[in-house]
Structure formats: C-alpha cells, structure tokens
Amino acid sequence: MTDNQPAITEEQISSAKLVWDFHQMHHDVHPVDVAIGLGSHDLGVAAFSAELYRAGLFPTLVFTGGNSPTTAKVFPRGEAVHFREHALVLGVPDSAILVEPNAGNTGQNITLSREVLACAGITPTSVLLVSKPYMERRSFATARKLWPEVEVTCASEPMEFDDYLKSIGDERLVIDMLVGDLQRVIEYPKLGFAIEQHVPEDVHAAYESLIQAGFTSRLIAR
After folding, report:
1. What pTM was estimated for this model as a whole?
2. Which of 29, 36, 43, 168 is the most buried (most CB within 10 A)?
C-alpha cells in the first residue's frame, strides 16, 4: 500500500476471495501427454510444474512467456527462460523442457506452445495447463477455444488466498489481477478469444464492487 492508497478492507478481501475461488477450476490432475507452464510474475508456476513432473504426470514440459510490465524487472530474460532455470534447479531434466519465449498473452501462450510442440514432433491429445491460481479459468477458456481437439486440465499451486497474498507481498496487485482476469473471462468470448462461461451472481457482484473500490489497474477498456 502506498501513502495515497486507502487500506484494503475486510469486505474487499472477502469479495476478492469469492473471485479467487471462482477462478480455480478444481480439476482432478491426472497423467497427460504434455504440460504447459504459463508465464507470469509467479515463480510458483515453475515450482509446481516441477513437482508434477517429478510425480510422473507428464514426460514433456513447455514453459511459455516473454515479458510484461509486471514481470520485466523480476524476470529480465523472459518468464519462460526464468521458469526453465528454476525447474532445472528443482530436478527437471533439460531434455524434458521446451521453451517458448515470445508469448505476450494467454492466446499466444497456447498457440505458440502448440507450435513449439509441433516442431518437436509432439502432437498431444491431453494437456495440463499450469498457471497462477487465479488464471486457471481464463487459461481453460482460451485453450478450449483455440485448441478444441485436446483434453484440457488446469492446475495451480495449492494455496489458500491469504497465503497467496503473503507469498506475493502486494495485496493490491493481486486483487487488481483477480479483477482483470475476471473481466477477461467475461469479455473475451465476445471477441472470439475464449469460450463463454457462466459467472455466478455473487461473484459478479463482488467483481463490480472491487471495480468501484478502485481495483482497476489491470482492466482493459470496456
């Protein structure tokens, strides 16, 4: 929180938790042909991808992502590159990792990862998308639109909302991103970027209340 920003209230945290819960797909994770670790500011994606690889759930792991304003300082060589390096430290062999270093949005994460896999001679029928916790639903909707022939499962590092806030260290950033991701879940189907998904009334009301409270830095123009 900066000096010119009000403290985040308990009511706002409660609203944010509703949105957080909605973003998670609660899929049962099972063996798949490949996993794709979606780049972001959250290095936990790489760590959880490595954990799932070590559990034997897939033979090939793609890390995808270039840079964004949120990640350029943290991961100056690009999200996918840093994620790969972290996974190597955690025991994933280099031979199991493919890197897609250019994607700048979720649609590109999917399409460019698909191209990288094709270049490696891999045509999966089942894919596990590993993302930050509040990106599961958007990544699912995007993959189902752009890659409808594959079975899509979503996963993220299992964390409670309060623990995630502490792990990132910036409550306002996280809530801004929760709101921004839900806006994309709502709006992107109209643009042909994703499949449509029902948003429950209480989740939508929580989302609107957070917008009214100023959690808007990750919104696209409506």
Report:
1. 0.92
2. 36
